[in-house]
Amino acid sequence: MKKIEAIIKPFKLEDVKDALTEAGITGMTVSDVKGYGRQQGHSELYRGAEYVVDFLPKIKIELIVANRDVDQTLDILTQSAKTGKIGDGKIFVSPVERVVRIRTGEEDEEAI
To answer: What is the pTM of this model?
Structure first.
């Protein structure tokens, strides 16, 4: 099993969710996060004063998938979150040793 973490632009969340759901991947955790990479933030004007916004709003999606589903999930995430502009985000893949569903006690792939 693998944990996939995707950092995407907020307005792409619905596109990503719809594409994953259509492929049968329904379980995910979504968090509002802030960060920056090559974008390096930007300047804004507020009441005549300029200030720098260092951290930009992003969405973090976390999924646990079976090893056989990793490539398909990465393709879906890449295609549905892509705008072609700087700041589209990143995807991280990590191994998962064990999963337990609290309600039933099911483990590993049965618990996903």
So the answer is: 0.84
